[in-house]
Amino acid sequence: MALDEARALRLEMRGITKTFPGTVACEGVDFDLHKGEIHALVGQNGAGKSTLIKVLAGIHARDDGEILIDGKPVEHLTPRLAHDLGMRFIHQELNLVPQFNVAENIVLGNPYPKRPVVGTISWRRLNRQVRSILDHLGISIDPRRAVQSLTIAEQWTVAIARALYTRGQILVMDEPTSSLARDDVQELFDLVRSLAERGTSVIYISHRLEEIFELTERVTVLKDGRKVTTADVADLSLSELVGLMVGGKPQELYPTIDQERALGDVAIEIEELTSADGRIVDLSLEVRDREVLGVTGLLGAGHNELADLLFGVQAVASGRITLDGKPYRPTTARTAIRRGVGLVPAERRSQGVVGEMRLWENIILAHINRFLIDPISRIVHGRRARNAALGQMRALQIVATGPDQEVQYLSGGNQQKAVLAKWLLRKPRLLILSEPTRGIDVSAKAEIYALVRKLADEGSAILFASTEVEELAGVCDRVLVMRGGKIAAELPRASLSAQRIMEACYGE
Amino acid sequence: MASEPVARKTRNGRARSGGLERVGLTVGRLGTVLGLLLLVAVFAALKPSVFPTVRNLLNILNQISLLGICAAGLTLCLAVGEFDLSIGAVATLGAVLTAGWMPTMHPVLAVLAVLGVCLVIGLANGLIITTLRVSSFMTTLGMMTVLMGFSYWYTSGSGSILYSGIPKPFLQIGRGTFLHIPYLIFVMAAVLVLLHVLLNHTATGRRMYAVGGSPEASRFAGIPVRRLKLLGFALSGTLAGLTGVLLVARLGLAEPTIGDRFLFDAFTVVFLGAASIRVGQFHILGTLIGALIMGTIFNGFTLLDVPYHLQLVVQGAILIVAVTSAGLWQGLLQSVRVQSVRQRPKEARSDRDAA
Amino acid sequence: MPRRATEENAAPRWKQWLSAIGGLRKYGIIVSLVLLFAIFSLLRPGIFPTVSNLMSILKQISLLGILSAGLTICLVLGDFDLSVAAVATWSGVMVAALLPQMSMWAAIPLVVSMGIGIGLVNGFFSAVIGISPFIVTLATQTMLRGLTLWYTGGYSLYSGIPSAFIRIGRGTFLGIPYLVYVMLFVYIVIFISANHTAFGKRLYAVGGNPIASRYSGIRVIRVHLIGFVISGVLAALTGVLLAARLSSGQPRAGEGLLLSAFAACFLGATTFRLGRFNILGTFVGVLFIGTLNNGMVLLGVPFYLQYVIQGAILILAIAASGLARSLAGARARR
């Protein structure tokens, strides 16, 4: 419930202002944090969250404002000083050294225990020390394991262990759950809650608003570099929160779906599909035209793997797939594309776009051969390609300075729309979306949901693989829940809700 | 790039089971060592009276001693994730300066001065690269060119040989023995042991690996990335300089191309090393193995009267074979690993149900 | 969206200036080239800025230029091809060995196809098997050096070279050496390929993000293979033309080309498309190196000093581009 006023103020930021040439990133932002509090920081991209955090981390020098730690003002904050004052930052990239094992990653940057005379590292004592902190935190990973052999969730716990190895008091977590599946999220939350109970203060930055309600006590909303409000989470509803972030009245995120609409013929039929790596076993399903079929499950259940499998990026061991009435054997992405299948992959930056290339080049990337002046010289028809890109920009409302802007300078949401545009250049027979709104701000999410529905209405068959149960409930016609590589439950439109999907994931 | 020198395929982020990984790597690691043993066996069979003798072994070690020292320094630079293409030119400079200063200076002073100069060159490389955040490849390329010109200029601009006035005791270092073991081998052993301990058992060394493995993670953890990279360059420069000094001690002369072959040879040796034992990581033990392989080939071929050019061909072929087999092993390992993942989801679930 | 700066909170004037200068860093090499030109023209007014001298510069750099063009393609993909010089040397020796026995029109394609073969070997081990191209090409260049030495025994091959072949290396058309035409032709073709063809788009896509390229249906391995083949072919062509110019196959002909080719490509990467290798930039880089060398020779600069200056300029160029980048890097990016 409401904050116990007796809890000491750990951190106070008053009137923080930071400008860069040409933009004001933060203006007059206040933020405070109590001991043992879990405080969410939300806002759209460009709202100023990361700048505020970087100011706190000592990476940027603030132009104006005060920072007080435990009541004492701090003048020139540097990363070293921030560390000494007990602040610990965990970024989305985790920043673990892949070649090291767990123990060395936890101790990274801190003194190694040394042997008395020689001065070389005492590995035994190191392992012992690391094991003790892991036990203290309730993490049961062997410190000698190579970090590369851990799952993402385990790596996050290692990152947290590292942050707390040296008595951290303020923990800042940036998008910790965007790569995690449901059950891992719960474990992470349990860990964070126990830390808070023991007095660690946590600043929790996330785009997953539903988690804010589950985990945090207060939320501070930033918009356009200014603070909108700080409120107790218990006093807000999801739509109110969204409204605060976007500005204006509370909004609904998801488009309304006509329950009565008729679906088309079967576009793709899958029978007893088994993947080469064993993630998918004897799977059967079908997707119709004009249908948005959701697929979900816990980590390892197979829904994301299904997306890759149908697109030819993973290998099929056995089974039959019929696309458009004809057999479909996706051996490579090229064969998939030729049959009209498109995939918006889960990792946008590493799998979706070539950041250094221009917007129009990214958009035509899957269909370059259709923009040649002639087949012999194979020179690309620049004007035709740019016009096609402009068309997509208009249709999807991609915000950019023009088709020639390099994609890396676009916001996450616009980048994702560029990926979509790549497939919409030629009406896809089957569009597969894998975690399409991961790491994207709220208004872009809403636009993408609307786009997906519109595509379905226009006749496409869509497979929507995601771990965010709320968006599945909000966007899909039907949801399949997978477990252990097979379909465990099917939820028709009428009984679709985030609650029921989650329950199905756990096997009720 | 330098942190994954052997194979690019290990980009798969899938979960791996610890035990299987250890077994597979153990087998894959030993590829180059087995290759070395094979070479030894072949040469021993072909020249049974000459090759497998203690004297010949010492010969081999003596041959590779200078290369070993140079390559050890390079290993450290690559461990921090940077390329030093100037080591050949630095070795040449070291030799040339040594030969030039020895006659007029006290030998110890001369050696220290030369090492000092090379240290400064290494630091210069490092400062330019870390302060201006530019490519190490290109910077050290430029430095190499500058030093080449300087060496030519210093040897009277016509590439003449410097050989006069080198004191006998100094030459003894390069040619003398202690308990029948050439001094140079002791020097190499000392350098290798020291650097091995540094890289594997000191905080500084481990942090160098951290910087090479993930500069971002290191920076965020407060590790002085810049300082460690400077250390890497300083060491590779100084040891290249030491190589040059010892070249004069051994050969009694210096000329402006004397150190050139160390560039490619050292890189070959270090990369061979990264395909051995600890696959994918630059480390001293591996570098030693790489040097041993090269030395064995050179020695064996010389005994068999095989011309130098064929040695080059074999050298290149072995590098490819060694790295290929290491890479294939990692690839094989992944597919085996992936089979075992089939079991995981069920196990994970049963753990949770039991909890 | 972040709010635009207003008068009160705009960055200080001097910072804006530096930022603007930083924005000019794209053209740094061109400016330096022009400056170089001006300096040499002032120092040797009657000799340097003459048509014949300029022609001489172009002729000097033509072979380096062709080699660098192929290397650029590999570098776009992130593949360091260390074997280009060794391939050129080997090709020069091979063509000199074959010419006495067959027609020029059979020998040249044969040698060039050897270049294709070597490129495929490089590409196979690096792209298909997955070994770092640095190592693979290090190995192949070692092997090629060995083979070259073995075949020639250290001697040059100069007998039986037909005069028609030599004319390629020495002849002119309309006052411009054939070699220059070849270089210009190569650059035009490679430029168009890299920037305006389907292959070029795929090339830069794979160089920029190989995973996203794969997810877009591009055959990544194939692109790498083609890159190495192009590099190999142009290196072989360079070797053939080298032999034509030297009228012999020399086992040490390619030395120094490796350094200069990489230097030219890296210099080019500081131009036009920052930090990215590009054909036009490489061309400017080659011009720069050629002009510098020519000027220094005209000024009677001893060759060792030339080395020093070349190296120093290379370092300065990198330093300048790095400095400019950090000055202009204050912009807040998302």
Task: Describe the protein.
The complex is a heterotrimer of chains A (508), B (355) and C (334). Helices cover 32% and strands 24% of the residues of chain A. Chain A is an alpha/beta fold and 508 residues long. In chain A, the strands form four sheets. In chain A, strands 6-7-8-3-9-10 form a six-stranded mixed β-sheet, sandwiched between helices. In chain A, strands 16-17-18-13-19-20 form a six-stranded mixed β-sheet, with helices on both faces. A four-stranded antiparallel β-sheet of chain A has the order 2-1-4-5, with helices on one face. Helix content of chain B is 74%, strand content 1%. Chain B has two domains: 141 residues, no CATH class; 198 residues, no CATH class. With 355 residues, chain B is mostly helical. In chain B, helix 3 runs antiparallel to helix 11 and helix 5 runs antiparallel to helix 11. Chain C is mostly helical and 334 residues long. Chain C has a domain of 198 residues. In chain C, 72% of the residues lie in helices and 2% in strands. Chain C contains 14 helices and three strands. In chain C, helix 3 crosses helix 12 and helix 5 packs antiparallel against helix 11. Chain C is globular and about 70 Å long. The N terminus and C terminus of chain C are likely disordered. Classes of the chains: A alpha/beta (508), B mainly alpha (355), C mainly alpha (334). Chains in contact: A-B, A-C, B-C. Chains A and B meet through helix 2 of A and helix 9, helix 10, helix 14 and helix 15 of B. Strand 2 of chain A pairs antiparallel with strand 1 of chain C, so a sheet runs across the interface.
